[in-house]
Write a structure and sequence with these properties.
The protein has a single domain, classed as Alpha/Beta hydrolase fold, catalytic domain (Rossmann fold). Helix 2 crosses helix 3. The two termini are 34 Å apart. It is of the alpha/beta class and 241 residues long.
């Protein structure tokens, strides 16, 4: 199914239920297929469950090259207005966490679960800064840079590369103090993409926030230990955490 938001066709899957609404937001380079285990679990429990494909991923339209993370938040805000009669709770992974932080800071959603969420300014090593300097030098002198950049970046279409650069260079520490919603962070102990220090930074900045660390798990903790992830998420949304 599709819904129009910010002039784009946004794909969504939905299982209606009598319990409170839940919206699932996937990570960068992923889609509703990646988060299906979460969707299926809450749908079977009777929650009014929706998962979307962000513009540029899955079955949704590609966004224009000047799209920002704030535009993604506006897309989701429009989806919420069209599909729900009240603010949903949100379960967000990685890039979806960026969008969810904005929505929460604007009081557009109810409870929030973030797993492996992005949006905090990363600590950068000397090696990283040297790689960036080398890339800029190569580009300046006209050398081939197609093999430079992260795998996520290299796999993107040209217009999405500009979107990606805008997204990863937008840091959202300023949203944290504005968030009044109950927030639960479920993090993989060995997450390298969004390390645990980012979760701790979020916890310090958000008034009503707790962290659950899943030992031995990495960036996709919800796939590596779904039993614990889903049980903890259910308990939180039902109000017992």
């Amino acid at each position: 199914m599709f819904v129009r938001a910010l002039g784009l066709n946004v794909f969504y899957q939905r299982q209606t239920g009598k319990r409170c609404p839940v919206l699932i937001l996937h990570g960068w380079g992923c889609s509703t297929k990646t988060t299906y285990c979460i969707f299926d679990y809450f749908a079977r429990l009777g929650f009014d469950t929706v998962a979307i494909d962000f513009p540029g991923f899955g079955n949704s339209d590609a966004p224009p090259e000047n799209f920002t993370v704030y535009d993604y938040a506006k897309v989701v805000e429009e989806v919420i207005a069209k599909l729900f009669s009240r603010p949903p709770s949100v379960i967000a992974h990685s890039f979806g966490g960026r969008v969810a932080l904005i929505l929460a800071s604007e009081n557009k959603i109810d409870k929030l679960i973030i797993t492996g969420g992005a949006g905090m300014k990363p600590r950068r090593s000397l090696k990283y800064h040297l790689k960036v300097a080398l890339y800029k030098l190569k580009k300046k002198v006209g050398l081939n840079t197609k093999k430079d950049g992260s795998p996520d970046y290299r796999a993107l279409a040209p217009n999405m590369k500009k979107v990606f650069l805008s997204v990863v260079n937008t840091h959202l520490e300023n949203t944290l103090r504005k968030i009044k919603n109950p927030v639960l962070l479920i993090w993989g102990e060995k997450d390298r993409e969004t390390p645990l220090y980012m979760a701790r930074r979020m916890k310090r900045g958000i008034k009503d926030c707790d962290i659950v660390v899943l030992k031995g798990c990495s960036h996709f903790a919800f796939l590596e230990n779904p039993k614990t992830f889903l049980l903890v998420s259910k308990t939180f949304l039902e109000g017992d955490v």
